[in-house]
Structures are given as structure tokens and as C-alpha cells.
Amino acid sequence: MSNSIDARLAELGITIPEAAAPAANYVPTVVTGNLLFISGQLPNENGKVAVTGIVGSEVDVAGAQRAAELCAINIIAQAKAALGGDLSRIKRFVKLTSFVASAPGFTEQHIVTNGASNLIANIFGDAGKHARSAVGLAALPFNGSVEIEAIIEIDA
What we know:
By secondary structure, the chain is an alpha+beta fold. It has helices spanning 2-12, 61-82, 109-124; strands at 29-32, 35-41, 44-45, 48-49, 90-101, 131-137, 146-154.
């Protein structure tokens, strides 16, 4: 699967960055049994939060979907680091929880989150199809527009 994942990433023009270090007192990943939990990932690109602001007032849906894609790329980066570089150990994305910094009255969090869901499904195929939640809230750390956490089933 690793070769097919690498091929799919190359086909999509995606380079997986180095996993970001935690910004506070937590660990970026936890493996327990055959589950990999990945802490919330912001839309970082080139070492900084690339999409900031409130969705529905300062950021449009397309920009927020791009933020969700970046979160997904960072989730994959964390998974790669946790799995010793071997993405073929991923059996299935179990669940994504997406947090969207939302203007009052904004109700398209699910559409924003499609940016991450679609990207993961495009890369991992059936193993990328997952359950999810999409939640709107007032603000996120570092003024990020989107933050996404993941639960992934792995070969232990």
C-alpha cells in the first residue's frame, strides 16, 4: 500500500511535510492497541498557519476547504512520523473531528470539512472513508480557520 500511497500523493502533487511539534503540553500522537490518535492539526504550510480568520466573514468556503486540506496533509504527516515513515500501516481512517472557526449564522461546516474528507479518500481509497463530525465554534488557536483531529486504525 505504501507504494500506492506514495504514487497517489505524487499524482496529486502533494508533498508530506515534517510533522509539526506540539504547541503546548500535549503529544501530537498516541498509539494504543491498533488505534492511532492524532491531536488537532491546524492548516499549517511552510511552518506557519496558512489560513486564518473566521469562516463566513473573513474566510470564504473555498478558502476554508483549502484549510481543511492542509489539516489533512498535516494529519498524514503526524501519522507518518508516528508510524516510522510507513503509511502502509494505515488500515483505515476511523473518524475525523473538524472544528471550524465560524461567524454567527454560518452553517456550512460540513462543506468546509469536505476538503479534508475528499483529500483523504482520494489518497487512501476505501481505507480513507471515515465517520466524522464538523463543529462550528468562535475561535481556534493561532487564529486558524480550521482544526482537525483524527483516529486511524493501524497494523499494530
